[in-house]
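U., I forgot to send this yesterday:
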Amino acid sequence: MRSNFSGQAGSFRYTLLAGAAAFAVTAPSAAFAQDNSTQVDSDDADQMVLEPEAENSSNVIIVTASKREQTLQETPISVSVTSGETLEQAQIRDVLDLQTVTPSLRVSQLQTASASTFIIRGFGNGDNNFGIEPSVGVFIDGVFRSRSAGALSDLPNVQRIEVLNGPQSTLFGKNASAGVISVVTREPQFTFGGSVEATYGNFNAITVKGDVTGPISENIAFSIDGSYNTRDGYGTIVNLNEEINDRNRYAVRGQLLIEPTPDFRIRAIADYSEIDEVCCTVGNIVAGPTAAGIVAVGGQLPDTNDFFGREVFLNFVPENKVKNYGGSVQMDYSTGPLTFTSITSYRELENSFLTDIDFTSADIATETRAQQVETFTQEVRLTSDFDGPINFLLGGFYFDESIAQQSAIQNGSQIRNFFEILAGEDPVAVLTGQPTLFNGLEQSFGFPQESIFNTPLLTSEDFFMDNTAWSVFGTVDFEPVDGLVFTVGGNYTDDEKTFGLSQQSFDPLAQVNFVDAFITQATALNPGLPTVTTRDQFQALPAAVQAGLLAAATDPTQNPLLGLAGFQFQPPFLNFPNAVEPGVTNDDKFTYLLRASYEVTPEVNVYASYATGFKASSINLSRDSRPSNTDFLAGPGGSTFAAPDSPIINAGLAVPNLVSGSRFAGPEETEVYEVGIKGQWEGFGINLALFDQSIEGFQSFAFTGTGFALRNAGKQSVRGFEMDATINPTDGLVFTFAMTHLDPLFDSFPGSVLGDLTGARPAGIPSFAIATSATYTHEFDSGSRLITRFDYNHESNTRINNGLPTFGPNNFMREVNLVNGSMTLALNNGLEVGVWGRNLFDDEYVTTVFDGVAQAGTVSGYPNQPRTYGGVVRFKF
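Result:
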């Protein structure tokens, strides 16, 4: 059936629809009336209609879950929903700000505008490595966005955003082991209408957006929407007198809705967006002993005593560009009690950046990265709407994606001098061109003079990954008596990845293993021994001779070269696929859902569920990708001569300074127990969910200074509860309160890059997260409204990390206290004017920290966004 939500009458109908859902389910995002943050079922998230129900019609939303009508209170699923009206009032532009109204969700932005991590209930992993598929899946209008860079453009014409907690394999064919963010936009309407909006705020922020929709013919409707968003940076590159952390992006989208018959509809969407921004502000929390070397070569660093001054020093202005485009076609055909749905999508993502990775004004090193992702998806779904006790949903999903990445680290003009000073050379001698330690090493090893750390590139990489996956999923609902529903669901997924990495490491010093070089030199000077230049020759020596040579070679008092090993941080790379490492993963898994729900009274519903989830292997597409310890183990000091037998050694593939690490991480397997109760009475609603969720093999991801370490935790778990409440004490006044409590644990994680974390509490997960709001709508006799809203977001004080790979243990903490507000005058002619502010009290906190690149002992971090405010003019027609 056609839905007519445009125009003034349509706006009223939509407001009634979205605002009626005060009485949410068990997710921790409470809302009511004008707050418009509700709970809906997501089996068929694109279908939501309001049906009058006696005198209480304004308090009931009917959702067609599996093409069967259910009220929100009857829907036994933990999902929080934020409406388009709340997004407008709170000036939430993208998913980065969504966490302020959804306590179970956290979003962390990393080194570029396109690198963010989504975390639900404490589970999530990085999108700064395109080989890692996030544990939290993002869907926009039913289409899976496999990388967060493809989901960060301004949210266009949004109807609602759903955050689903826990594994969702029986609802979404491409399973996400931790949860799902589902963005649902408004479809074209058969009544002409639209809106235009302009916003101006501090930091010279300008946002312009608009949409128009209407009929082309009796059976065809269209819509076009677009946005342009620009803002000055809230940080300053002091030495260059340039801004950083600006906003410069736009997006356009067109849709067609075709209804050739009452039973058949087609929705076609095409969109294009670009981001071209300078990101991100990085300050120093700790300036390590290497800071003196930066200063000695004439560089400057951010002041550790003024972290939130957001004044940085770089030797050039960073670049980050993202192009994200594609299209989808959804077809729905109904015949009697059965409905068939097909969603076909093709998307491309282009992401590139140029970054000063030492974050100082000295010319030490820069990184470039260019990534391209091409994704095709096909989903089919059959749902029933029988009058009897049994109904079902059956679906299939196909996913085909290819990823290509080229990256490099460029040596800066001052990197050699910087490292020589760190090696203990006199700065004056270094800067005046006198012979230095590196000159002596070049002579000893036969390298060209001035070649160490003086090649144009330090490294150059080419990575690729092709991923093909398919799944069959579905649910069956059985209602033996009114109000009691048993649900069984399942998902079988088969996922195959083919991947390869090749890297060139150009620095000559990194090509030499100092233990093996010492052994070669020692045997050459000992006339009683053959000169050893290969592993076979070393292994042929008597065991006692091997032990003696190795003891001397690993003794710093006899082998002074050992102290220079820290400068070999980009050694030769073992390319693959190779004879030992095929570069292929193939995973398959059956996951399932068991659930019972019961309507105790018309006001109270309860449910209990047990679900499992799955995410396939992820690939370490970084310059820290290394063979597993089952394929290779290095000898002491990274020696190849003394390395034990292994497949890579026996195949003759070992390269100097090769060490083991991770090429990929195996699958994640999720298990969650959950019970919930939902109560709704006149003017008051409260919902509570208790859960115990764990992931076997959680794919832990850590930045190591120049690359990334990828490991499987044995088991990571979290217990907690989610509670939300709404109070409507009088007409127009609504209070909401939502809280999430999390108690996480590394049940088993002996192989982390920080050592054995078994029994430790995973850092970065606050014990308590709170989102609360107050909204008052004063309606004038003319029909105009004055809407005032304040909301508060809190995350309790927590450690930011469990330690850093280079810096080590620490006690860096984060606590969040954000207050946002808005006031909007909505006239009855469609004109709206308002003011808004985010982070009104300018709360300051560190979002995340990391080891300084090639600066042992230095810790850098990202400050949060400062206070922003402005005014808005909007006209709806």
